[in-house]
Amino acid sequence: MRSVSSAEAARNFGTIREEVIAPGAEPVTVTHYNVPQVVVMSFQEYKDLVHRSRFAGKVADLPEEDLAFLATVDQRNTQP
Amino acid sequence: MDGLPDGTVVRFEYEWGNGNEDDYKPRPCAIIVRGQGPRVFYFPISHEPPRGDDVALEIPEEARIAAGLDAFPQWVIVSRCNRAEWPDGVRTIQGRTTPIYGTLPTEFVKLFRSRIADVSRQHLMRARDRLRS
């Protein structure tokens, strides 16, 4: 993954934006005093990343394993 | 995470799906926690009454106060959710240092869990019927 300093990122944001939204492009890391601190990526890339570990939608479309858990959640007796 | 109870209301970057303009905008959600992970289910809280075939519970005033919500009528939708690994997507409340608004009272959490279980059982049975046929 290409990395740029925060000074360079501030100067060249337009170029970096063009770069990361190109089809198949990689995100760009922004370093601050040589420490990687920020990642610039396309919104689509961000959504794909989030979706690898998350579910969003109707309860009806949850995987069966999650439905089976939620179907018995009323039998939990832990106090909120 | 450390033992957050079901019915805790947290600020979460909820995704409605279908390219909704409010996707990823953090909003209050009531949680159901699943041990492993820990995996957390986020049920969105809205000032709007449910639309279409959505199932929602209106949150009574005393429950809204306990959960740290504002004074206007609000609903928690139980037919939609997001699932994420804690603390992925959880966001600090503006002007505070915590993502936690408060916790819904015990009686309301019972109702919340039972409506979620009803909706889930219904869909679980449908999913199993589809597999059989």
Q: Could you explain how this protein is built, in words?
A:
The complex is a heterodimer of chains A (80) and B (133). Chain A is of the alpha+beta class. Chain A contains 4 helices and 4 strands, in the order E-H-H-E-E-H-E-H. In chain A, strands 1-2-3 form a 3-stranded mixed sheet. In chain A, strand 2 (28-32) and strand 3 (35-40) form a beta hairpin. Chain B is an alpha+beta fold. Chain B contains 2 helices and 7 strands; from the N terminus they run ββββαβββα. Chain B is globular. The mean pLDDT of chain B is 92. The longest helix of chain B has 27 residues, at 106-132. In chain B, a hairpin with a 4-residue loop joins strand 2 and strand 3. Chain B has one domain (8-132): SH3 type barrels (Roll). At the A-B interface, strand 4 and helix 4 of A face strand 6 and helix 2 of B. Strand 4 (55-58) of chain A pairs antiparallel with strand 6 of chain B, so a sheet runs across the interface.
